[in-house]
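Hi support team,

I submitted a single chain yesterday and got back a structure, but I'm not sure I'm reading the token output correctly. Could someone confirm the output below corresponds to the sequence I sent? I've pasted both exactly as they appear in my results page.

Thanks,
R.
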Amino acid sequence: MTQLSTRKPVIGRHALLGLIMALVVAGCQAPPPPTPDAETPIASAARVRLRPSERRIDLIAGRKVLVPVRLEPPITPIGAVDPGVTIDGDEAIDAELLWISRSPAKPALRIDPLAGWLPAPPAWSSRSIEQLVVGEAPPGDGFWALLIDLPPTAHNRDLFIAGRSAPVQWLNPNLPSRSAAPMLFREQSPALSRTLANAARDPLNRWRTRLLGDRLRAPRQTVIDEHGTRFSDPAIETMAQQAEWRWRLALDRVSRADPFLGAELLDRLTAIVRFGADVEAPAWPTDDAGLSALRTELLDADVSDETIIARVRDALLQSPETTAWIIDDAGWAPPTTGRTVTLIGVAERAGKAGLVHARAGSDHAGPSTPLGPFGVARTTVQTPRAPTEQSLGTLSPILATVSVIGRSETALALLPLGLRVEPPGFRLGPGSSPWTLRSWTAETPQPAPVGLSFYALLHRRANGEARWQLHVECPTPSGQDAGMLRVYLGPSNAPLAILRIDPAGLQQDQHNTPLQRDPVAITRAPDAWIATIDIPPSAIEPGGILRLAIERFNASGERATWPRPVLPWQTAPGRAGLDLSAWNSLSDEDEYDTGVDGGGGGA
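Hi R., thanks for writing in. Yes, this is the structure output for that exact sequence:
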């Protein structure tokens, strides 16, 4: 129950007289200078006011709890602070005022196939008043909080902070031990186990791995305990435990009101999608603020079960059950048809089977593709041909419509085949970072950071030769790895060449054998290196079609790609299909048989 106090402090007549005399004396003489040996003073509630930051504080008697508070004034007070935490206003209990802060995680080597899919957990820590600089704002990104040790006898009693009754709600101390949702997989891959263990190192996300530990058939310690996810800092461990028991109680309430709805909510919160035979990855919602608000509402004792059911159903409707994305715009040319198709992925994130239809533009949808629960379907549409009168800069969007029958419909902008390459050249870049869970679910590619970006220009040689060059500029901030380039040529399912170029000026075709190293022209600038790459004539298909993708990567395993971002475990980027025959100075039609599409696909 939520209880608010309306009591007002009363000052007695003798106490008031003593206070007036003290003020008179203080005004007549300067305070003595502090001495190094003086005892640390205790700041009173009159000097430092503590106010809970949450509108309602959910508590369990007999447990520790971390209560965010506002400190007024917001600077570090002189000396220690007595927070004045009591039960019923007269029974003092242990409480400590702490500064809880987090610092960005250090980037790790991305040797794991799932690296980067989830954000690296920040480093959390707590500091007492004595560990901070007096009179200054605390360092770092953080907040003030009270670490309170609640006695078992505190249940349903008033909690006072700094002399004021706090807005508390006492929750059931009998926590449900395990979730009732069905198991996910017979066993999880080592990469998934490492990813979940890494997520468990964030106290605000460890609750997910605990709930998943109930649902994965592998021993629970494989996901949780083996990787040492208990925090050595008592305040941070309390924060992690608090998030977990609040979610367990919220889910338990939904399950008691509607067991099927409770299981569906847990499915969404802990979704793991199987992207391939050896790749499983988290696919849960990333709206942390929205999830926190939902949990707070589910725990509200003043809200009826009927309202809870309606609220959860609304939340599930607002959370997409599927995610669709373009894997490859123009890189697939099945030998059976010779026509280019666009490869599209559709992931199921709600545990329900379905059927996928896809079409490009006004074309009719092709055959339906089955979509399994927590699985991925790969479907294709025939890649439309780019209009001959438009260049990339003026190209109207061409949409592919992807439907999961009866559930969702998504419009995806695709790159047509035959993007015109005209003087002075076709510009590419700056590249996109690999998909993360957050950017993938939001369907919003993220631009590459400066140290992985690249700016390229594809053009025909100026000396009249029917040869093509690709100039690629790679910005390199001081002190950063210069990285390398890969240029992918030809269809994705049948590459013609994969050129690796390093800043030292060596080029190696990693696809064709025997492997040989050829020199490549490198121009160096103070903050960049530029490679001038000759496009092998054998990489240009009949009709003047060049299928192309670029990747820049470094020794840490980070990378950026064009024309599309890739999933972290994706080995190569999809291709764009460029039309070299559009170059207006190209007069030697013998160089390309412009009457043949060469698998380039057409309308």
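A quick pointer for reading it: The first strand starts at residue 42 and ends at 43. Let us know if anything else looks off.

Best,
Support desk
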